[in-house]
Design brief:
Blueprint: H1 13-26, H2 43-49, H3 53-63, H4 72-77
Length: 81
């Protein structure tokens, strides 16, 4: 695990994090879902990073069948109801 702390409002901070994420993904790294990351609705890309992604989606769909827990993150990553 690599932590990359930054002072809030760091100029270019998000760009730095995105470049680091892209470089680390190329080496087999995976972003932490609970932290800042740049994953989007590309199911194929997410599936490659998380081998049990389809299992997880089945569980989240079951537990969130009414969409109660949908939010901007779940929409961006493509697993909202």
């Amino acid at each position: 695990m690599i932590e990359i702390p930054m002072v809030n409002g760091t100029v270019g901070g998000m760009e730095i994090l995105e470049r680091l994420e892209n470089a680390l993904v190329k080496m087999g790294g995976r972003p932490h879902w609970g932290q800042v990351h740049f994953l989007s609705g590309s199911q194929d890309a997410i599936r490659k990073l998380y081998p049990r992604y389809d299992d997880w989606v089945r569980v989240i769909q079951e537990l969130n069948s009414a969409g109660t827990f949908d939010n901007e993150f779940t929409k961006r990553c493509g697993f909202s109801r």
